Amino acid sequence: KVVVVGSFNVDHVWTTPALPRAGETLSGEYATGPGGKGFNQAVAARRAGADTAFVCALGDDLGGQLARSLAAADGIDLRDQRSVRPTGTAGIYVDGEGRNSIVIGAGANAELSEDFIQAQRDTLATAAVVLAQLESPPDAVLAAMRAARAGGAVALLNPAPANATVTAELKAAVDILTPNETEFAALLARHVGERVDGDAIAALDQARLHAFCRELAPEASVVVTLGASGCFVSHPAGALRGDESAYYRIPAEQVRAVDTTGAGDAFNGALAASLAEGGDAPFATRVRFATRYAALSTERHGAAAAMPRRSDLAERFGA
Ligand code: ADP
To answer: How many domains, the chain?
Structure first.
């Protein structure tokens, strides 16, 4: 089972020819639907085949009702803390090339409490993987990661968004970190004292990337997602069957991306689902599954709504 601890937002999405600049007024196609990294990842984990619970905070409003009905429709076990603040919202612009700009109103997500996480002890105890992001308060995220470890589950942290802080304490509590390029650059600046531009990460020498990862999170596996360039994986000594630390690159699948919003969420949810399956498939096989899943999610518009089902994956990639 996968337990996702994180955010739910009502997304408002405008598709425009170009992203708006300061002072500019554009018109675009509008759509609304569910989002939030937590919910997106929970939907991805569920549709990728895992029994999934989603722990979040919701307002007593239409957004909260939307979360409840959508979780039910996807068969997600929703554990929601009720907040007096409005359900989270996000304003998203997507341009003709699938690039995006996003503004988030955290609302109820900012209220998710350590106490509520503790109260979900029984749910967390049944997890094989606990997956969290940083759109929730740091105390709640830390409590979730610690509960994972305490229950023998894999503590998987997607350190997103990039402007959120990862404390040394939190870093030490996770088994797997999955930053994208921007988030990885932010982590390197904060914890390793290296200034590398996010756009330059994919072109870095792999041995150098590995050294950065080992210094950043000595005990954790790090999966740096690189958009259309796939991802880079770095394991500490002892994580794989051998005793040596290891690194490798997994290329992205060739697809016709129309909207990469939520590609990282698709990747994380699918990786969690694959890890939760157990068995003795190597880590790289699970990352490849997540890579295919994420690629397919970029061929459709939207975030949670665009998450493929396992059958779509089988149809497309034959696995
Ligand atoms: P985020 O959405 O957090 O910025 P990335 O852009 O790194 O995350 O995407 C996560 C994963 O999704 C990548 O590692 C890759 O496997 C897949 N992906 C993203 N963009 C594309 C694309 N244009 N084509 C194929 N796969 C993609």
So the answer is: 1
